[in-house]
Amino acid sequence: MRLDGGAGVGVVALDLDDAAQVAAADAFVKGSADGTPFHRPAWIKAIERGTGNRAYMLAAVASSGQIAGLLPLTHMKSRLFGEALVSSGFAVDGGILAGDPAIHSALACAAEGLARDRRIGSVELRGGSSPGEPWCVHEGSHLGFVRPIAPDDEAELLAVPRKHRAELRKALANPALRAEVGRDQRLVQAHYDVYAQSVRNLGTPVFPKRLFREVLAAFGEDADILIVYEGDRPVSGVLTLYHQGRVMPFWGGGVADARRLRSNELMYYRLMGHGRTRGMRIFDFGRSKTGSGQAAWKKSFGFDPVPLAYHSWSATGERRDINPNSAHYQRRVEMWKKLPLPIANLIGPLISRGLG
């Protein structure tokens, strides 16, 4: 596919099996101030391998052959939730990566064309600036939480508001709790066991185990896992991405005892320290739904919420509903919470691969 973008720029679909094209796209993302891990070919290729949802990478290419803009897309497909091209699938960010408004517009038009060609009803952009009409802007549903990493552990502790700091001190004083960071199979399994229990308790289907393995493999040293143990029992765990000085905890959770143990508090505190040793400067706590307990928890940890905006285009004016807080899904969420964990882990990945 090639569309004229004006000013000598064309839009093409990159071959994600071509190492040179992938390297050029990755270099463009890493060289862009607004680039995120979710713009990288590594992300959408890992999603494709881990869930079966097809990856596309649209690139605006100048007459010189240099990339001037990117739009990574995942074709989300589900009988329950419908279809959409999403930038980026299973991510909290993405959207069009281009500094020139003309290039931005060309990539938006190319995404619309790809959706029409593939008979996909809509396109969703999780971040970036609005492409303008006929795209819709969606604001108020999610909040972002970001702050600098403090220069040392004591300063990090003092950056946590007093009430929550007291809870963190209890975890720090518990000799049974310890944290371990790495990428080996033992930690991968511990993370999955903890995460699966956490999301089941929230009423959400767990993602396929292969998804986590593929993301770790694709990102190499730019991703790892931190587990908090009570003795030998994993009680909290998080898979984290590292990008351009940012620590980005992504898939995290705790077992039912995590609240009593304050192990989630300890997990993120230790992750801040680990990020500091890696030379990271920013702790990006990701997004949470407005009004959720998770958003309130992050705020109490010393992070100020910032409203996020998403954008969508639809050939019919309809947009798929994947919000577990919507009235349409509330009964199913409550039923899911009551499922035995082995059953939830068996059927959850079959459902969740279409949710991203």
From TrEMBL:
Q: Where is the BioF2-like acetyltransferase domain?
A: 162-299
Entry's transmembrane regions: none
Q: What is this protein called?
A: FemAB family PEP-CTERM system-associated protein
